[in-house]
C-alpha cells in the first residue's frame, strides 16, 4: 500500500509540528561543529547563543566524590574524542569506592565503548529536547557498535542525552532512507541499575536491559528509530515509567515511513513480572511488543496508562504462554493494521478500559490454540477502514475472546462488531460478567 497516499491529515499535522520544533537544528552533529562562542547562523537565529564562557565549577570541585570529566581532558565540543577522559574519571571514582562522574553541559564524542565496571553515578545537566546543540549534557557517537555498557551493580545514569549520527533526513516523500546500524546507546547488564531523565536523539536503538534485574527506567524521552527499549533475560522485576517517544528529531516522511515499517517502541522478550506505566509511542510498526528469545518469554507483565499513536499495531503479544494485564490502554492506527494483536498459542491476556481507534483491520484479534483474551470496557471505533469486512473482535486458530460489559462499538465501515465463530475454531463470547472457569 502506498504510504504517501494513506497519511491522514491529523497525522500529517502531528508530524509537521515536530519539524517546526527542530527547524534548523535537527541534525545535532552539524550544530556541534560550531564553537560555543561562534555567532549562530540563520538557521539558529531564533535560538539564543550559549554563553561564551562556562560558569565557574569551583563549588562542584569542592564536593567530595565528584569527578568532572573536563578536568580529565574532555572538551565537550562534539569533535574531540572524550572516551579517554571519561574512562579516567570513572577509574578515579572506582578508586574512591564510588562517586559522581560529572558531565558539564557539552557534546562529548566517544569513538570506543565506555564500560562502567563498578558502582558509580554518571550525572549530567539534563537536555533540552534537541532544539539547541549546546544545551545540556550529551554523549554522542558516529561509530556503529560504540555505546555505554553498564556492568556495575547499583549504577545510576541521570540527566544525559545520547545521540548517534544518522544520514541527513531527506525532504522528498519518495526518497529511501534508513538509519545507520548503531547498537543500543545504553546496555544495562547489571542488577539494580537506575536510568533517569535520559534523552535518545536520534538513536537507531535506545536502551537494552540484558541479563539484569530490578532495573528502573524513568523519564525516558526521544526518537529511537528502530528499537526504543528492549528487555531480555531479566532476572527480576523491571520497571519502566514515563516514556515519551515522539518526533523530537525529524518528522520527514521517509523517517516516518522507516519507523512505521521497522520500528518498535518497547520490546519485551524474556522478562518476569515487568511493570510498565505512563507510556507514549508515536509512529512505530509496533508500539509495545512481547515476544520470545532463547531465554524464554515474558510472564505476568503489567501495563498501566499507555497510548500508542499512529502505530501499525498498538500492542502485540507473542511468545507462547505469555501472560499479562493491561489497564487504561489506547491506540490509534491512523491508519494501522490491527490495534491489539495476540499471535501465539497459550497466551493469557486481560484487558480493562481499552480504546482502539482507526485501523484497517480488526480492533482486537487473537490467534493461537488455547489462547484466551479477557476484555472488559472495550471501546472499538472506526475499524475495517480497508473495507475487507474485518470484525472489530476476531478469534482464530483455537483462540477465545471473552467480552465483558460494558462494550462500545462504533463505525465498523460495514463490518460486524465481532465474529462469534472464527476460522479454525476461534470463538468470541460476549456478555460474560460472571466467573469464568475452565477445566
CATH first level of the largest domain: Mainly Beta
Which CATH architecture of the largest domain is right? Answer: 3 Solenoid
CATH topology label of the largest domain = Pectate Lyase C-like
Helix content, binned percent? 10-25%
Please, how many domains? 2
Residue fraction in strands: 35-45%
Number of strands: 29
Structural category is mainly beta
| Distance, first to last CA | 45 Å
C-alpha Rg (nearest Å): 23 Å
Question: Would you tell me the overall average pLDDT?
Answer: 86
Biggest sheet descriptor: 26 strands, parallel
Shape: elongated
Unreliably modeled segments: 1-10, 16-52
Tally of individual helices: 5
Keywords for this entry:
single chain, 439 residues, mainly beta, Pectate Lyase C-like, 2 domains, 26-stranded parallel beta sheet, 3-stranded mixed beta sheet, elongated
What does this structure look like?
With 439 residues, the protein is mainly beta. It folds into 2 domains: 4-261, 3 Solenoid (Pectate Lyase C-like); 312-439, no CATH class. It has 5 helices and 29 strands. The chain has helices at 9-21, 28-31, 58-61, 83-95, 253-262, and strands at 66-68, 77-81, 100-103, 106-109, 114-116, 121-124, 137-141, 148-150, 156-164, 184-188, 194-210, 216-232, 239-245, 264-268, 271-272, 275-282, 286-290, 292-293, 296-299, 301-309, 313-317, 323-336, 338-342, 348-359, 364-367, 372-381, 393-396, 400-410, 427-430. The chain has a 26-stranded parallel β-sheet that branches. A 3-stranded mixed β-sheet has the order 15-19-18, with no helix packed on it. A hairpin with a 2-residue loop joins strand 18 and strand 19. The radius of gyration is 23 Å and the shape is elongated.
